Amino acid sequence: GAVVSQHPSRVICKSGTSVKIECRSLDFQATTMFWYRQFPKQSLMLMATSNEGSKATYEQGVEKDKFLINHASLTLSTLTVTSAHPEDSSFYICSARTDGSNTGELFFGEGSRLTVL
Amino acid sequence: AQSVTQPDIHITVSEGASLELRCNYSYGATPYLFWYVQSPGQGLQLLLKYFSGDTLVQGIKGFEAEFKRSQSSFNLRKPSVHWSDAAEYFCAVGGMEYGNKLVFGAGTILRVKS
């Protein structure tokens, strides 16, 4: 199947700093990528839909100024957690489809665990 | 809005025993239904999906699921569980009305005892 890769897999940062997480589709082009957040022992919550060449679409309750999403190319989307605080500590997962349909399989990255001290 | 309920947070089964993980959904139209598996610290892997047609869907690793519209359910089954099946399982629902979005259930952690 298609491969989606995230980097870094783990990051620890100090409170107040910004952290960037990359999501790459390695063997296909993704016009749309999705960013999810997963709290311990909870499900995945969709944060935003990242659209290549345009602004991301954020879910209700997600602060777009805090979670900056950039989809600069068809194979790369980045999530920047700005001025991170301990409550932002979480497991962030991106996903992408190989086609633009609603029924294509979603391929998930390995996830990035953010710990804010 | 669509929603997914996985009633069981944890399930423990013996190796070789059969397994059924429950999933109930709420969705106004014809749903797209998915089951994913997540190993600790890993991303998600698709086990199977249902869009239309035969309501019994076969997936990878010997898993199957049955869509029952009357019960709004999409339960995941496996006849004989292997120790390597221990993981967390997520049911998800999407559909044409909601574009590309998937809504996930809270997950069920499967433990396999030898």
Describe the structure.
The complex is a heterodimer of chains A (117) and B (114). Chain A contains no helices and eleven strands. Chain A has 117 residues and is mostly beta strands. Chain B has 114 residues and is an all-beta fold. Chain B is 0% helix and 51% strand. In chain B, strands 2, 5, 6, 10, 11 and 12 form a six-stranded mixed beta sheet that branches. The radius of gyration of chain B is 14 Å and the shape is globular. The mean pLDDT of chain B is 90. The interface between A and B is medium-sized, with 24 and 24 residues.
Helix content of chain B: under 10%
**Biggest β-sheet strands, sense, barrel of chain B:** 6 strands, mixed
Largest interface: A-B, 24 and 24 residues
- Our Rg estimate of chain A from Cα atoms comes to 13 Å
Tell me, briefly, the overall form of chain B.
globular
Oligomer: heterodimer
Keywords:
heterodimer, A: about 120 residues, mainly beta, 11 strands, about 0% helix, B: 6-stranded mixed β-sheet, 4-stranded antiparallel β-sheet, 12 strands, about 50% strand
